[in-house]
Write a structure and sequence with these properties.
The chain has 435 residues and is mostly helical. It is 70% helix and 1% strand. The chain has a two-stranded antiparallel ribbon. Keywords: Membrane, Transmembrane, Transmembrane helix.
């Protein structure tokens, strides 16, 4: 449990960091507090047998990751834009990634047994902390994207992406625990309620990449887990007396909740409508259409930045093709599309190594989702779908928000065949030997 809490503090600690720093006012605006929080996560990950017992990893993903890091470190040292003169901070980030991977290699596979329930508890606490922060923040109003605000005056802002990421992790973990055959009735119901709570937080954050990822995750779940025969059995089971009684209780419970929390339902509905309208206007802008008031539709700031990035890429292909071959230099362009930035800044070498890793991780994820070998691998596989979506929508290829989860993929995904049977969802039973 200590190892899992440490891992979660590293990969999903920012919601709690913002809560402690800005809502509880323990260290407003302090980067030292953030660094100390992550350092505490690293300390919790250190096993007593550190460096005495190492565990197997996915060597294919590791080799591809090392190739990409070799490229970016070469560019950082020898081929970078003039404005980027100090690589110390970036080097520290890469050391954090290396340390995280080293600690993971020392952590036993037994964390699989407790990873999902601890993740549920951790993410639900973070979701509750966000709701508390919103209710107690006088500068936040209904209609704004849900995030803990930081900064002062006109520079006060928030980062909804870290909260949508936490909410999606909560939905995935709760879904895995709820549909696990060994889960009893009460924990299953609690998991489903926590999953719905996480979806509500997703709606409040209005983060496109997470919403798209959730849709893809649900689609993959149904593709690999629902069969026509199961649908028939489920429909037949709905008309059993026990099922009808349960549906009646659920219906009454939902009706009671909606009567008591009508304002909350209206708020969520308003967020959903605003989210759809905002994204439809982006679609209209992409097609060159007009909105209802006959004004030409325009992109919002986020979509507009990506549209500018794609136009930049088009200009490179039309008049500066040599940039695609060798790149412009380390961090020379900020495009907010990781795959595109790997190409523009690091040329063919950076693009090939980065995409090779990302698509290999996608291959292992799809295979893991299909086979569902163990709860931790399945969680990471579904979680990677969100990271894969973000490769086309936001972020940079160097960020630790990508590479810390990637380290988890390297450590645990694609190696379930090496685990003992007690850690697997579908252990292989050895045939009995007749004597």
């Amino acid at each position: 449990m200590r190892y899992v809490v440490g891992i979660l503090m590293v990969i999903d600690g920012y919601p709690l960091v913002f809560f402690f720093k800005e809502t509880l006012r323990l260290a407003p605006g302090s980067t030292a507090f953030t660094a100390a929080f992550m350092a505490l996560g690293f300390i919790l990950m250190i096993p007593f047998h550190f460096l005495h017992k190492l565990y197997r990893i996915n060597t294919t993903l590791l080799k591809m990751a090392l190739l990409f890091f070799a490229v970016i470190l070469f560019y950082m040292a020898f081929y970078r834009d003039q404005w980027f003169r100090d690589g110390t901070m970036d080097a520290v980030y890469y050391v954090y990634v290396l340390l995280f991977l080293i600690f993971l290699i020392n952590i036993p596979n037994d964390i699989i047994e407790v990873f999902i329930p601890i993740t549920i508890a951790f993410t639900v606490v973070s979701n509750i902390a966000l709701v508390y922060a919103l209710l107690t923040d006088p500068t936040w109003s209904i209609g704004q994207r849900a995030a803990i605000q930081f900064g002062e005056g006109e520079y006060r802002t928030g980062n909804p992406h870290v909260f949508s990421r936490n909410a999606l992790m909560s939905v995935i973990a709760c879904g895995i625990w709820a549909f696990r055959p060994q889960t009893t009735f009460v924990p299953r119901i609690l998991s489903l309620f926590a999953s719905v709570f996480g979806m509500g937080i997703l709606v409040l954050t209005q983060t496109r990449s997470s919403i798209v990822a959730l849709i893809l995750i649900i689609g993959l779940f149904f593709m690999f887990n629902i069969r026509p025969r199961q649908i028939k059995d489920a429909i037949r089971g709905l008309f059993r007396p026990a099922s009808l009684a349960l549906m009646l209780v659920v219906f009454m419970g939902i009706s009671f909740f909606m009567r008591k929390n009508g304002d909350l339902i209206a708020i969520l509905y308003g967020y959903a409508v605003a989210f759809i309208e905002r994204n439809m206007e982006n679609v209209y802008a992409l097609l060159g259409m007009k909105v209802q008031n006959q004004f030409t539709a325009s992109f919002d700031a986020s979509a507009g930045n990506r549209a500018t990035s794609f136009q930049y890429l088009r200009n490179i292909f039309e008049g500066h093709l040599h940039v695609v071959l060798i790149g412009q230099g380390y961090k020379s362009a900020y495009l907010d599309v990781p795959l595109m930035e790997a190409l523009i800044n690091h040329g063919i070498a950076g693009f090939v190594t980065f995409t090779a890793f990302c698509f290999s991780a996608l291959f292992y994820s799809i295979k893991t989702i299909r086979d569902n070998p163990d709860s931790l691998s399945t969680f990471l596989a579904y979680f990677y779908i969100m990271l894969f979506v973000q490769l086309f929508t936001n972020g940079r290829p160097y960020e630790i928000s990508f590479w810390h989860p990637f380290c988890l993929m390297i450590r645990f995904v694609g190696i379930s065949h090496l685990y003992p049977p007690n850690l697997l969802n579908h252990p292989t039973v050895a045939p009995a030997v007749s004597g």
